[in-house]
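Re: your question from the hallway

Yes, I did run it. Sequences:
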Amino acid sequence: MTRNPNMREAILSAAESLFSTRGFNAVSIRDIALEAGANPGSVTYHFKSKDGLLLEIYKRHCGPMNKRRIELLVAARRVRDVQDRLEAIVRAYVQPAFSSSSDLAGGGARFTRLRAVMSAEGNAVVGRIIAEIFDDTTNAFIEAIEQSLPHLPRKTLVWRSQFLLGALYYTLVNPERVTRLSRGEADGADMAEAIEQLVSATVASLQAPDINAQVAAEPVAKAGARKAPAGSRSRIP
Amino acid sequence: MTRNPNMREAILSAAESLFSTRGFNAVSIRDIALEAGANPGSVTYHFKSKDGLLLEIYKRHCGPMNKRRIELLVAARRVRDVQDRLEAIVRAYVQPAFSSSSDLAGGGARFTRLRAVMSAEGNAVVGRIIAEIFDDTTNAFIEAIEQSLPHLPRKTLVWRSQFLLGALYYTLVNPERVTRLSRGEADGADMAEAIEQLVSATVASLQAPDINAQVAAEPVAKAGARKAPAGSRSRIP
DNA sequence: TGATAATTTGTACATCTGTACAAAAGAAAA
DNA sequence: TTTTCTTTTGTACAGATGTACAAATTATCA
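Structure:
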């Protein structure tokens, strides 16, 4: 090793940080080099191209993150109580996205934010990779949820998993909004609270009746009820 | 008016379309001009700069969209039944984001997608505007929800409104994911269904108990209480 | 009509972009 | 030490970018 024994890592970390906040196209190789204290030429030496650098970031994180997810999912599926199991499953999905088990600089939150930004930009390099690598894991989660909520069609669970991922992404992309709207009552950057809030909200949304579900016999007095009792109390048999 | 009586509109529409799919920095003025069938110089003539063009897009949509939202919110607040009212409130928030009332080319969905992308990129031009213009509307919604769910702290409602917006954004940013994961069972681009699914899931999540709520007395027979420990293990003092 | 204003066009320019590549510097092994 | 390999540096280049601006074109109106 030469001068900076971690130059490669420094570049990766700088790129991750800049990409995840400004997007891919807004960040130049020179920006990254400056942030990492490296020479621009050194970036192409280590990663061949800007795309190669982005790809390397994904390779670095995807494996550990999804591995951790599956580990937690396996444990979650063994939980007896349905309610607790559902919560454990959602937590298994959410938690590694906020802080990956591996101690890669910055943790999983930054990488998840990066994924959110790349997704929004419709990044071509990443498009295929994402679908291929993440869909397997996502499917495992949907199946697990399917087993805990067998009365719901898969279609509905997919929609709700979409909402979960969106909520997850946006929480990392724009945490200031939570702080602002709550007038300081909440801290949007508090990852621990974000996880708890997201898990509890998601568990409830997963348990909502299907939008096409027939309403079982219920003593309805009013005439209104245009959409059926869409809420959570209809959960009670 | 000159050759193309709608050249200004054509440029706006083209820019909106390109920005909302590729992001701000990935799209050049020349790209926009090409898409609009205009000369690059014409873009700077009408909008002064690239930033000015983006700003004009916001000016064009923000007003009508939030106006429609507030209209629907006012109506929603008059709904008697709590459950129905909550649903109407959420729908009042969601629906205009998918299709604005005004018939501006492309409807509200494209603009909402644009907002999602700009938010992810941390676009500086837009940052302030968003907070100033949208926070008022959002606060009106949070207050309305607060009145329907008085037992929940505002903080929790802010978190859940964050999740709603994230879910909304991501549904527009990456609809293909729904189609793919559902194996064709669902169409992620079906806006009508997206709205229904999002509304029903959100209403349920809003009604979830607060993560810090004490569990009221409930005849618990089993070891695992149904809803009680749903929050986190760390919650109990 | 002619005169004036509004729009479109084409060109130009300074700057930034990703990347290539040779030279320099350093580390490792003989 | 010398030799060999790895890494860093500096420079260069072709292309793209945002924007300015004068000329050409078209519309508006007296």
